[in-house]
Amino acid sequence: MTAEINQDLILVVGSTGDLGGTITRTLLAKGKNVRILVRPQSNYQPLVQQGAQTVFGDLKDPASLKEACSGIQFLITTATATKRGGPDTATTVDLEGNHNLIDAAKESGVKQFIFTSLSIADPNSPVPFVQAKAKTEGYLRSNNIPYTIVAPNAFMETWIALPVGIPAITGQNVTIVGEGKRKHSFISLNDVAKFMVASINNPNAINQRIVIGGPKPYSMLDSVAVFEKVLNHQIPMNHVAPGEPVPGLPHLISEMLAGLNFFDSPIEMDELSKLYSVELTSMEDFANKFVESLKVDKCN
Fold it and tell me: What is the pTM assigned to this prediction?
C-alpha cells in the first residue's frame, strides 16, 4: 500500500515537459502543495492557473536553485536537455545541472529526492545523455540524501509513437532500424508519472532504484503488428542498418533506435505494479488511444 502524500511542499523540476507536466497536474488534482521551477520563457501559466506556485530559475544557475529548494520537503525532477538546444546539453543540464540541483536539495535538507533516470543508464555509454543519467545516479547516492531513482524503459510516447505510430497513421512507410526483433518492455509516460507520484513519502521507495517497464515486452515489428490490428490494414515497412538516419526523425532518436537492436530488455512488473498500485498500459491500449488522439487533432 502506498503512503498518503501530506501537505508538505513538493518541488517539481521539469514541470513544463511531458512527464513533469503530467506529474504536476496529477499532484495539483490531488490538492497537493506544489512549487514548480520554471524559466520565464516557458509555458508555465496553465499550471499556475491550476494552483502551482512558481519560482524562476535554471539548472545551470546554482544560485537560483537555492531559492527553489528553500522550504521544500520533497523534490521530483524530470528535467532534461533532450528536446532543447543551444547551451542546454546533456553535459550542462543532465549532468552538471542535476549535480547543482542535488547540492541545493542537500543544503535545504530535503526529505526525498526523486530522480528520473533510464533503465539502461550506464556511465560508460557512448551516448552522453545515457552516461549523464548514470553519473547523476552515482552523485545522488554519494550525497546521503534520501533518494528514489525511477528508471523507466523506453517511453511508448516517443519510441513507438514517432517511428511507428505517426507514419502508420499518416500513410507513410514505417522505417525499422535493423531487424527490429529485439524485445523491450516499452512503458507509457503516464504510468511512469504514476510510479513517481506513488513514490513520494513512500517507505518502499526510499533509497531504491526502481526499474520499470510495460506489462509485456514488444519488438518494433510487434508494435507494427499492433498498429496494423488497430488500423485494420497492412502497414508498409522498410529497413535501414543501425547507424543510418531514420527519415523524419532527429539524430538522437535514430541513434537510440539503433541501440535497441543490440539487446533485449524485458522487465517483470507484476510485483512492482501491485506494490505501487499502478495498472500498466498495454501496447494495444496505447495504440488505440494514440490513433484516437490524432483523429481528434485532425477534427480540430
Answer: 0.92
3-state secondary structure of 250: coil
Specify whether the CB–CB gap between 56 and 223 falls below 8 A: no
Burial class (CB in 10 A: 0-12, 13-18, 19+), 144: exposed
Amino acid at 16: T
Taking a C-beta distance cutoff of 8 angstroms, is the pair 94, 81 a contact?
yes
Per-residue pLDDT of the chain (300 residues; tens, 9 = 90+): 344 444 689 999 999 999 999 999 999 999 999 999 999 989 999 999 999 999 999 999 999 999 999 999 999 999 987 766 678 888 898 999 999 999 999 999 999 999 999 999 999 988 888 999 999 999 999 999 999 999 999 999 999 999 999 999 999 999 999 999 999 999 999 999 999 999 999 999 999 999 999 999 999 999 999 999 999 999 999 999 998 999 888 887 888 899 899 999 999 999 999 999 999 999 999 999 999 987 655 555
Contacts (Cβ under 8 Å, ≥6 apart) of 96: 59, 60
User: Can you tell me the distance from the alpha carbon of 102 to that of 121, in angstroms, rounded to the nearest whole number?
Assistant: 18
Q: Which residues of 7-34 are buried (b: 16+ CB within 10 A; e: fewer)?
A: eeebbbbbbbbbbbbbbbbbbbeeebbb
